[in-house]
Write a sequence for this structure.
């Protein structure tokens, strides 16, 4: 049984507020109408001899720990490795600058494909202050330090053997929040687990994980969707990814023998990995760009995640919001090697051929990715007996250049379009988020989420439609704004995978060669593209072995 602790926040004699945790006192800062604590430990140090194990509790400390600087887990950002391996298991916490108690708590998991990102990617200040709630953002292990399925690392403990160390970090963080957030004025029995992109996929994974049962009462999934990976093909892929290091270090003479060795339980494999520097480990895996075979993770190990993945009938049934932008793939298209140089030098806006090609992948990738994030997930959940309300939300703010400007309008409602609305201290795209319409949209968007967390009816100023569960209506709430005001309405999706494939086949805006290249080299092997890949026969070996993820 959980017991709510009294609020124990008081002003320090020097600067920021002090709060008590089970491991020691922490001192934060006051900023933007909130009290903030950054870099609060929820887990113990993960030094090299603690790699690839479940997290431990923090080591208690004496005195008052200064928690005013956010941390991030070690990660590879375009060839530059930064962050910390040892003490990355930390939280950033925001609460309103008042004496309110028993507040709802949003726990947020950042994006970055479980390879990059940090708790500092989004500020919870505006949401916490505006809606009298607590916002907690998690740092967790990333890349091959956060997910590694190789057999030699297993030691008989089912959590350690799962390979899902980043997910175990989230589990540990939620336990910390349940036990300690009362000291910050929060209600440990009213937790909404949320996440964006890979963080959203992590939240989706918690809905099928037995170890997360009872750890949160609501869930919000921003651009997440359902992805898991089978263990055996993931092991093969990791062996491929790390074999070059084994050869480089002279352990094996060639790649085939290195791959074969890495797939064994030889204790020397384990020693080799523990002796590798964190920098080399993180660099061994490049940016997967929403391609599972680039970095397979969220393993269906049978303990943390069920072997049948989302085909399980044992979901953790909590009310859930599934969010998407209308053009989620545009960002990934702009980063793809086929288009990235054109975006860098600006020619994407002046080269008619390249512009038309981008329009093609933006349109169809957006349709498929948007459906993947919301309807595909909701339909799967309902088909497997999901009993709690599911609410769909689709945002098209950004689709009209006349409203948001040419650069944002070129991408449309991109992957992460909601962040400047949830975090009002962000200001992407030169003021597109600061118009009267965007300001009103931010108020409406935040209020929908806050009411969901509070368990209140979905009504608020400017809202034009009641937000009905997808379970009942098969419709989603649509949100947008012009330069003056926001608008919302309920509507169903007007297309299916089959109709999109038919439309692609009938689309003559590109030459057959251009279309074939984009389908097989830009849109291929993405989270959302399995039906597309099957139709155009460009599945990878990993997809074929890992079908059903």
């Amino acid at each position: 049984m959980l017991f709510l602790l009294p609020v124990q926040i008081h002003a320090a004699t020097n600067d920021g507020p002090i709060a008590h945790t089970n491991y020691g006192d922490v001192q934060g800062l006051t900023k933007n109408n909130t009290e903030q604590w950054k870099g609060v430990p929820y887990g113990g140090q993960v030094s090299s001899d603690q790699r690839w194990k479940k997290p431990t509790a923090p080591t208690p400390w004496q005195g008052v720990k200064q928690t005013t600087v956010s941390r991030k887990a070690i990660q590879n950002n375009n060839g530059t490795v930064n962050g910390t391996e040892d003490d990355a298991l930390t939280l950033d916490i925001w609460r309103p600058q008042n004496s309110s108690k028993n507040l709802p708590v949003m726990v947020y998991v950042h994006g970055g494909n479980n390879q990059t990102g940090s708790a500092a990617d989004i500020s919870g200040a505006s949401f916490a202050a505006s809606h009298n709630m607590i916002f907690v953002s998690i740092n967790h292990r990333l890349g091959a330090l956060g997910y590694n399925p190789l057999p030699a690392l297993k030691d008989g403990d089912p959590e350690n053997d799962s390979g899902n160390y980043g997910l175990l970090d989230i589990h540990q963080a939620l336990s910390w929040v349940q036990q300690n957030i009362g000291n910050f004025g929060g209600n440990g029995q009213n937790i909404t687990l949320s996440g964006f992109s890979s963080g959203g996929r992590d939240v989706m994974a918690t809905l099928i994980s037995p170890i997360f049962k009872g750890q949160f009462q609501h869930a919000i999934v921003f651009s997440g969707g359902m992805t898991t990976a089978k263990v055996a093909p993931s092991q093969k892929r990791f062996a491929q990814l790390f074999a070059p290091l084994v050869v480089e270090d002279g352990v094996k003479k060639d790649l085939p023998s290195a791959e074969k060795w890495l797939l064994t339980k030889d204790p020397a494999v384990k020693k080799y990995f523990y002796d590798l520097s964190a920098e080399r480990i993180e660099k061994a895996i490049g940016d997967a760009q929403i391609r599972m075979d680039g970095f397979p993770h969220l393993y269906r190990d049978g303990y943390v995640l069920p072997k049948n993945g989302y085909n399980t009938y044992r979901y953790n049934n909590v009310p859930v919001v599934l969010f998407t932008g209308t053009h989620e793939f545009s960002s990934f298209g702009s980063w793809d090697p086929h288009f990235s140089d054109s975006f860098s030098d600006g020619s994407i806006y002046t080269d008619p051929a390249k512009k038309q090609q981008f329009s093609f992948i933006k349109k169809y990738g957006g349709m498929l990715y948007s459906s993947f994030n919301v309807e595909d997930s909701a339909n799967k959940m309902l088909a497997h007996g999901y009993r709690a309300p599911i609410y769909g939300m689709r945002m098209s703010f950004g689709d009209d250049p006349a409203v948001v400007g040419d650069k944002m309008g070129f991408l449309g409602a991109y992957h992460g379009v909601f962040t400047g609305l949830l975090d009002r201290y962000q200001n992407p795209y030169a003021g597109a988020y600061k118009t009267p319409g965007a300001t009103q949209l931010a108020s409406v968007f935040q209020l929908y989420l806050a009411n969901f967390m509070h368990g209140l009816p979905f009504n608020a100023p400017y809202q034009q439609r009641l937000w009905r569960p997808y379970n009942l209506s098969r419709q989603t709430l649509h949100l947008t704004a012009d330069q003056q005001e926001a608008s919302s309405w309920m509507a169903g999706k007007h297309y299916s995978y089959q109709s999109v494939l038919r439309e692609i086949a009938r689309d003559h805006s590109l030459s057959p060669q251009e279309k074939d290249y984009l389908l097989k080299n830009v849109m291929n092997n993405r989270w959302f593209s399995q039906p597309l890949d099957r139709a155009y026969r460009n599945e990878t070996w990993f997809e074929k072995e890992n079908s059903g993820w």
About this structure: The CA atoms of residues 76 and 280 lie 9 Å apart.
